[in-house]
Amino acid sequence: MIFKCKNCGGNVVYSPEHKQMHCPYCDSQESQERAMEECDKSFCPNCGGEITVEEHTSALQCKYCDHYIILNDRVEGEYLPKKIIPFKLSKEMVKKSLRERFKKATFAPTDFLSEVRLNSMVGEYVPFFMYDYDVNCTYNAEGIKVRTWTTGDVQHTETSYYDVIRDMNINYRDIPVDASVKMPDNVMDLLEPYNYGEFVEFKPEYMSGFTAEKYNMESDTVEFRASDKMAASASSILRSSVNGYSRLNERNKNFSIRNKVNNYNLLPTWKYLYTYNDKLYPFYVNGQTGKIVGSVPVSKTKVLAYGATLFVLLNVILIAGSYIITSLGII
Amino acid sequence: MEYDVKKEARKQYFAYFKIWFILAAVLLVVAIGFFVKSNMNKAEGRTNHSAPEQRVYDNADVLTDQEEADLEAYIALAEEHIRCDLVLVTISTPVEGPEIEGMGYRYTDWDRNMRDLADDFYDENGFGYNASFEGDGALLLDNWYEGQAGTWLSTSGRVYEEMGTIEINECLDDVYRYIESNPYQAYKEYVDYIANLLSPKKNMLAFMALIPGCLFISLVVALIFIAVKLHNKEGKVTVVPSTYTDGSAVYNVREDRFIRNHVSSRRIPRNTSSGGGGGGSHSRGGSHRSSSGASHGGGGRRR
After folding, report:
1. Which of B31, B53, B72, B169 has a Cα-to-Cα distance from B225 of 20 to 30 A?
2. Across the A/B interface, how many CB contacts are shorter than 8 Å?
3. CATH architecture of B50-202+295-302
4. Residue at A252 is within a domain
């Protein structure tokens, strides 16, 4: 489907700045109507230009007419997401924050923050499975406390042994795991957390203006990542309830999931794929909170040039300074 | 307009090091100025031509004629090197006590009268390498009068600036090491001490000694700069254990049950130690004006 403007026929997109549908052609708000529901995944339903639809793509932009096409069969039925966090940051806002964040990256290649390169950024909704767990945790350990004190010339050491027992119920909501093969898991983890207060019921309108994927990994395949996150969190919380011991010998720790729910949701990310010396440096930005994840490429020429310049200039300054100071007879 | 990466890179580079370039250029110009000035001074030569040629006034007659001549030559060499006049005066005159009545002294004590004698002799003869008033130079006044023997060192101009109480005492120590056994050697010590202290080579040596340090500091700073700039993490973890919990944990059991304890004891070996220290303080006297109005520094002591 394509969202067309009732007033001018242009492509209406979701605008993070206006927080509603906006027609960039005639500046109308909420003027959209669904059109061109069918798409054969080879040609743009709007202009007929050739389009490349990858296996899991659910929304894309036609490179000829710039219209955003949403593939109905990939956002409906089993692929209908339950909830979505709409983009809160526009491309301009993200460009600004990337520039701010990396302005001190002196050794980054010169065009790293150039307008041309940054304009290649794409907003993409990433498919996530989110897991709710109601968990019961049991824990048992031997806790050892050591106390020392001195009377006169004699040092005393008291060692006390405790039986540490915990039985704790804790509930988790929406632990996210990305269900996309192409998204690097560690990067997606670093983009967390999203503010779930801004979840809304899914509507295809939110996808207009962005690209997206349907989930392409099964829930059973990715769930271990959610349960690992749950276990790490529960262990940490349990551990924080055990204080004051010099040493702990863990005897038993067990997490049993009493209740489990999982949902399919979409979360917004901005993707800046920067290529330098034939190597790809992907940057991902949380489309809601603006958190940036990515490693800046380093230009070896710049490292050498800047390092050498600093060395030479410092020498000139220090040696000239020493000459002046010694000439004045201060030293 | 097409984006010119090289041009932009140059622009960024110069913008980045702008202040450093300016600072380096300014210091370099000042240093070159100092260098040129010190070389010009060397070429210039003596600028005070009103002072007498004589430097050794052996009124007390403690030196032989040969020694006097040698000392004159010795001083001449030193003067050329450090560009300061070095005068030696020996006397055998009372400067305190009832004997001095009617002799025209301003004071009654040894110190101030010795000081006046030295300062006045220097001023009245118009000594000073660069000027006849407050010119660069020093005068050693050595009094051999029975019971009032002692030495006063009067400094002026650059010698005054370079010599504080510590240096004056060091110089007098050098002189006193030989004064009773070999006055000629003692006076040479005076010339040597000031010649060493004011030697232009001394500045040059101090400067040379700083160069390895400059190189080392620059290298370390440049390496730290590179290390800091290269240090970049992909991103920090911003998820905390409680991020996805719904409410806080509910404990069905939360118990720390005491089982047993035991106590062990051991004797601590003791060391005894003691320490101590001491210190001292030094002060530097101020300058004073002689009767001619010239400012002098200096100091002296009795033997």
Report:
1. B31
2. 244
3. Roll (3.10)
4. yes
- Closest to A239 (Cα-Cα) out of A175, A170, A158: A170
In this structure, is residue A219 part of a structural domain?
yes
- Which is more confident, B203 or A181? A181
Whether residues A274 and A326 share a domain: the answer is no
- Cα end-to-end distance, chain B, whole Å: 88
**Residue A119 falls within a domain, yes or no?**
no
CB contact under 8 A, B8 and A106: no
Phi-psi region at A329: left, alpha or beta (left = phi > 0; alpha = psi -120 to 50): left
Q: Hey, are the CB atoms on A307 and B222 less than 8 Å from each other?
A: yes
Domain with A199 in it: 127-298
Nearest Cα of chain B lies from the Cα of A64 at a distance, in angstroms, of: 23
CB contact B14 to A (< 8 Å):
no
Q: Determine the residue of chain A that is closest to B37 in CA distance.
A: A327
In a domain, A313, yes or no: yes
Distance separating alpha carbons of residues B60 and B91, to the nearest angstrom: 5
B179: distance to nearest CA of chain A, Å? 31
Calculate how close chain B gets to A209, using CA atoms only, in Å: 27
pLDDT band with cut points at 50, 70 and 90 for residue B284: very low
In terms of domains, do A210 and A259 share one? yes
Distance from CA of B45 to the nearest CA of A (A): 19
User: Between residues 22 and 51 of chain A, which touch chain B (CB distance below 8 Å)?
Assistant: none
Whether A155 and A178 share a structural domain: yes
Q: What angle do CA A75, A294, A228 make, to 5 degrees?
A: 65
State the pTM of this model: 0.68
Query: In this complex, do B229 and A193 lie within 8 Å of one another by their Cβ atoms?
Result: no
Is the same domain home to A269 and A318? no
Q: How many domains does chain A have?
A: 2
Do the beta carbons of residue A266 and residue A129 sit within 8 Å? no
Name the residue with tokens 């030569």: B45
Write the pLDDT tens digit of every residue in A47-98: 999 999 999 999 999 999 999 999 999 999 999 999 999 999 999 999 999 9
- How many other CB atoms are found less than 10 A from the CB of residue B146? 7
ipTM attached to this prediction: 0.75
Amino acid identity for residue B146 in this structure: E
Is A311 found in the same domain as A226? Answer: no
